[in-house]
Design a protein that fits this description.
3 helices, flat, three-stranded antiparallel beta sheet, alpha+beta
C-alpha cells in the first residue's frame, strides 16, 4: 500500500483505497446509530464536518491501512448559544498513581484496553446537528443535516 495522504476530500475521492476508508468510518456511525438525517430545524446552526486522513503503519514502517476520520468542526460553536459546558472523561494523574501503587503493593495484574470508536458510544443531552460529510452528501436531500 502506498503512503499517499490526501490533502483534501476531493483528492481522497480519486483513490478507491481512501474511498473505502471513508466508507468504513461512515459505517461505524451507522452501526452505532450515531445520527439520523433530518430537515434542519428553524434557526439551526449546524456544525461543519471535515475528513482527516492518516496512514496506519506496521512495526516495520510499511503502510498497512488507510484511516479516514470524520471530525466535527466544533470551534465554530459559541458557548452559551450552541452549548452550555464541555466535559472530557479523563482520569487525574494522581488517581492513576494511586491505582498503580495499590496494584503493585497487592501484586495485582493490571490490563489496558482500547475501545474502538469510543466517542461514538456516548450520549448527548443537547440537540446537535452537523452538516453532511463532504463528498458524501445525500443526492436527494443535500440540504438536510445529521441530528446526533
Amino acid at each position: 500500500m502506498k503512503s499517499f495522504i490526501p490533502h483534501d476530500v476531493g483528492h481522497a475521492l480519486s483513490d478507491p483505497k481512501w474511498v473505502n476508508a471513508m466508507h468504513e468510518e461512515l459505517e461505524k456511525f451507522e452501526r452505532n446509530r450515531v445520527w439520523v438525517l433530518v430537515e434542519p430545524p428553524p434557526h439551526c446552526n449546524p456544525i461543519g464536518t471535515k475528513w482527516v486522513f492518516k496512514n496506519k503503519q506496521g512495526d516495520d514502517g510499511v503502510v498497512v491501512r488507510n484511516k479516514a476520520r470524520l471530525v466535527a468542526q466544533g470551534f465554530c460553536q459559541k458557548e452559551g448559544t450552541d452549548y452550555e459546558e464541555t466535559f472530557a472523561p479523563i482520569a487525574r494523574l494522581e488517581a492513576i498513581h494511586i491505582l498503580l501503587a495499590f496494584a503493585a503493593s497487592q501484586g495485582f495484574k493490571l490490563f489496558q484496553m482500547d475501545v474502538k470508536s469510543a466517542f461514538l458510544n456516548g450520549f448527548i443531552e443537547e440537540e446537535v446537528n452537523v452538516r453532511q460529510p463532504p463528498g458524501f452528501e445525500h443526492p436527494k436531500f443535500p440540504n438536510r443535516v445529521f441530528k446526533l
